Amino acid sequence: MESMKRTNTCGELRKADAGKRVVLNGWVHRKRDHGGISFISLRDRYGITQVVVDCEQNSHLAALSAELRNEFCIAVEGSVRERPGSMANGEMITGEIEVAADRIAILNRSLVLPFQIDAEGSGESEAKEELRLKYRYLDLRSSGMQRRIRLRNEAAFAVREWLVKQGFYEIETPTFIRSTPEGARDYLVPSRLYPGKFYALPQSPQLYKQILMTAGFDKYFQIARCYRDEDARGDRQPEFTQIDIEMSFVGREDILAMTEGLMGYVFKKTIGVELPARFTRLSYEDAMERYGSDKPDLRFGLELRDFSPYVAASGFQAFKDALSRGEAEKNAAAAKGITVPGGAVKAIVIPAAAMGGASYSRKQIEELEAHAKIYRAKGLAWMKAGGTGDAPLFEGGVSKFFQEQAGRICGELGAKSGDLILIVADSSGKTANTALGAVRSKLGKDLKLTESPDGGRRFEFAWIVDFPLFEFNEDENRWEAAHHMFSYPQEQYHATLEKDPGAVKGDLYDLVLNGYELASGSIRIHNPELQNRIFGIVGIPPEEAEAKFGFLTEAFKYGAPPHGGIAPGFDRLVMLMAGETSIKEVIAFPKDSFAKSPMDDCPSEVDAKQLNELHLSVIYPEQKK
């Protein structure tokens, strides 16, 4: 078929090519027959070209054309001609021309498709996810998937281009490493040569990039594959890709400024979006108090407000009890050297305009309450603002307990007639904030507050800084690292690390975009003594620390420089740039929601010979019982 090798792609030809002899290769996207004339939309990854077959003039072509079905792979030879003005298709980049075929070859036939690849011209398949993943090679032919994979490629190139220009080296780190505790379960690889020993797949290149800084490489990056054995969800799966970055002789602001420059370049280069030079900065405490989340969506307001000043003068005992229990729990924790926030009563005011001028029904409020309970709220109180500006009053819900304070509450919370006030109280301030924050996020989606008035996409970045370095695990009665054990505690806490771990803030930072955590990073510990103190606080004895991390702390003894870094999630970044809500839409071959691949049916069993070579035997769950 050398003579039918393509001379042009299906997205290349224009009016200036009229009269040119061409050969196109591609797939039959659509075929229409009209009174002796067949019109074939021929597709490759570059576009679609209309091919015209005059069946009355060529019986051999007529027979071939009659055989063609969607997704047959064919070669077409013919002449380019300009379409009459009335027949030009302005929606196609090749819409001003067509190819009059005088030769067609079927390169490969296709079975009947399990689903329409491009349902009703949408560019997307309407098949369910499991079917799309089973026949992923067909799903990837859709214009939507082709567009998103192209975007992924362009974004990866832009990342490399910008970082290399800034003096970074791209350095690969090992895929087979020592198993170290990093928060999730490791994927383990048994060693054939060393019975009973295992490699682990890296959850991140964390330790190796710190060693690269110790080695003097100053600026490192890698578009790194990472592996975590945890439950899958829309923006997470067992294997993923991150833009791993580390720098020496830097502070927090250097890392933040570098990341802002990188994001600005990638967005401008790939999708033409201009980002602000500097992103919003929020402390962790401020983010939790105002938005109930450490990854707030800043595309809309609905900030959480402190409702506790109105509780004492009310007759609502449930709110009073939450605050008193919270104070008792705070004092009891303080006696053990643990800092907890105490109780809180938080509110959100939903403007009538946001609700389309109509009040929320009781059923809708009950749905919001059910959502709040998922996040451990005891309930969701509510009342509606009514009356006039001079004489406000409350209606429904818990209104009777706060009627006497209506003027003060409406004035201080900015509630107007028709607005709805939602309230959560809990003895744990963190629970109150988190539950009402979850309600806020749901309202943002339900009321379409995240959408731009002009229909365009919006990208609202924010830095969350000053995270707690430690979290107390009540079930195991011990402290844990909030992010990881290699984050640098802020200088002012070094003298009191062991005395009050709960008060320690780390030099940690997360980059948030449209309600998603896009990147996480920190300034790292580079001093072996300080690193060993952190190991002690999180309950790792010296012998265990030496066994698991000795190669890192040993490296620190040889003049390790101050260093820090960050790791934007590449799959999540491309997902948000593409306007999607699942990373499966921007990964060529993702796993499904059960961490399986329907296309090649993995994970799969292996035969006894392979297990014997690896010195392994399998114990199934029923055998354990």
Let me know the number of strands.
22
**Helix/sheet category:** alpha+beta
CATH C-level label of the domain at 300-446: Alpha Beta
CATH superfamily of the domain at 300-446: GAD-like domain
What is the CATH topology descriptor of the domain at 300-446?
Answer: Gyrase A, domain 2
Task: Report on the biggest sheet.
Answer: 8 strands, mixed
Tell me the strand order in the biggest sheet.
6-9-10-22-21-20-17-11
Structure notes:
- The chain is an alpha+beta fold.
- It has helices spanning 59-67, 129-134, 136-139, 143-165, 206-214, 252-271, 284-291, 317-335, 362-374, 406-413, 429-446, 528-537, 542-556, 570-577, 608-613, 621-624; strands at residues 21-34, 37-44, 47-54, 73-82, 97-108, 169-170, 188-190, 198-200, 219-227, 239-248, 280-283, 305-306, 344-350, 381-387, 392-395, 420-426, 461-465, 470-473, 478-481, 508-513, 516-523, 563-568.
- The strands form 5 sheets. The chain has an 8-stranded mixed β-sheet with strand order 6-9-10-22-21-20-17-11, with helices on both faces. Strands 1-2-3-5-4 form a 5-stranded mixed β-barrel. It has a 5-stranded antiparallel β-sheet with strand order 12-13-16-14-15.
- The N and C termini lie far apart (61 Å).
- The model has no long low-confidence stretch (mean pLDDT 92).
